[in-house]
Model the fold of this input.
Amino acid sequence: MTVRFALVRSLSLAAFAASLALSVAPARAGTLPRSQDPLIQNMDPSVKPGVDFFKYANGGWIKTHPIPASERGWGIANLVQEQTYLQLHEISETASKSDAPMGSAEQKVGDYWMAGMDSMAIEKQGAAPLKPYLDEIAAIKTHAQLLDVIAKLQVDGVGPLYGSFTAQDERNSNQYLLHFYQGGIRLPDRDYYFNADSATKRIRREYVTHVAAMLKLLGDTPALAQKGSATVMRIETALAKRSRTLEQRRDPWANYNKMSLTQLEAMTPQFDWQRQLAACGITHVDTVIVGQPEFYRQADSLLKVVPLDDWKTYLRWNVVSEMAPRLSRAFDVENFHFYGTVLSGTKTQRPRWKRVLDSEEAGIGELLGQAWIKKYCSPATKARYEKLTNDIIAEYRERIRTLPWMSEATKKRALEKLDHVTRKVAYPDKWRDYSALQLDRTSYASDQIKINQWWFHHEANKLGKPIDRTEWDMTPQTYNAYYDGSKVEIVLPAAAFALPGIPDSLVDDALLYSYAGGSTIGHEITHGFDDEGRQFDEKGNLNPWWTDQDSVQFTQRSNKLVEEFNAFKVGDKHVRGKATLGENIADLGGVRLGYEAFKKTDQWKKGESINGLTPDQRYFLGYALSWLGQRRPEALAQQIMTDVHAPAFLRVNGPVANFPEFYKAFGVKPGDPMYRSDAVRVAIW
Ligand SMILES: [Zn+2]
Done:
């Protein structure tokens, strides 16, 4: 999606979370003992804060907590997630043993869980769940049949050749439109097909080997599999060639190309779009938004020149690759070898029960969420989170009102927009209706297809209807948060406030405003005003509302942040300052708003130390705790190539080095590596 900005705190792809101690402290009932104080226990005192603050704050923990073989990284998000896994495991087990009526949430959770855990049945089925697809692909004899199969695979969640989704029209947020987006490749980003560094070259070689191995598992001879793999690589490379980079995809205007279906058909005559959409069950569409027209022209010209047999190979690869995690061991292991080990450096797979929970979370996460909040998040807790959210937003209001660099005209519009932001906190008031989804225990793969189909129709059914403003795109048990630029809303799941292992009553305000909510809320709310978000008005429409002079001021400031991050290196790769700019602006804003709100507390005003740490020291260390952890080098390289978020340690060292209060708190002086002179320091909010 082009208009969602997540915090993405997790160190793993599936970011769940939660808490023994979902903790927003109403009032401090005691002091955190030194032995339980993560700010003391995680430190590496041998590192000077002015040399590497992240290492100083978190280095002790990192030294003693190596990354488990089954993980691409390990840190605070995993600690939260480990708790959530146990909670969701219990919910799933209980559901599977209940006599819940057919069609109930409990029945669906229990049956999907059992189907996923039944490794004997999965092994016995082997490649059987693929058979209907492979038969259909084998039967393709005409161009029209090829397109029909591509359409069917869109509905079933395989998504070959291109991507489509339903979202609000970026210039008229009152209506949903069908969006077409670049896609069709199965390496994580277009850059993987072209970058010339040795690590990426190796990944390309391994990818070709992997595609061949998968085709062999489908019964191809080694020679045929090798030929097929070269075909897949050729098609995908051609698609990647006309795909946009991470930076280019962040420009909302450039990726907004509204056209009539007739215009799209004229631009891409090989696609019979009327028929293609009808095959997906989508009718009455006359206007669409095409993210990257050059990509569609390229796909169209490929449809003209690539032989049918090559497309059939490409489709077989797409089907087997997409479904491999839910097939028998041979498929699952080969799939993990490439996507887990080669791409992320992970040595072994997570145990099956965790992987099944990952799937449950992604497919029917709200069904789990309804059970989860009953146990782990009360209405009273929700109310406390709401209050904290309102406090941080009030702080932002005050900051905008007094900003020295923004004109009164732009301030007025900014405040208007801020007042329009919907605040969704802890858990939804209304849950998604899954009643059309039917699941049973007979086949994990076929349950997954039913879930994919359900999602496709659920989204497509929105076309032509009023905007559903009640939906959440994250579950309450997710350790993450997001801002939606079209809906103009922040969404803060209950688990985003989790502080593992520390009881509510012992969370001091420094921790509360830095780690457990404050800076997160600040991060999300400022997304509405980052380099991308600021281009949307208070109704969620792409619509310039800044004066030219204020735009210049904003850009001058944000350019400094681009330069700061461009200068950071991870291994032999430079961080991409432009690609990560929106997130870096949000981090800077989050630390600032959390800090300003903290300054209003008694703890800050009294200036009393806890466990030898001053309030300011605790605040900045608390912020560093949000990003406690490390990643494997392979996973870091992947992050730089695919993610708009900078690596965690830079999300600490990057923003804090712009805070005079940080320098003062830790005695950082000119000449220290962390020190940035006044001239290059950035302050936006
Ligand atoms: Zn973000």
Remarks:
- The first strand starts at residue 4 and ends at 6.
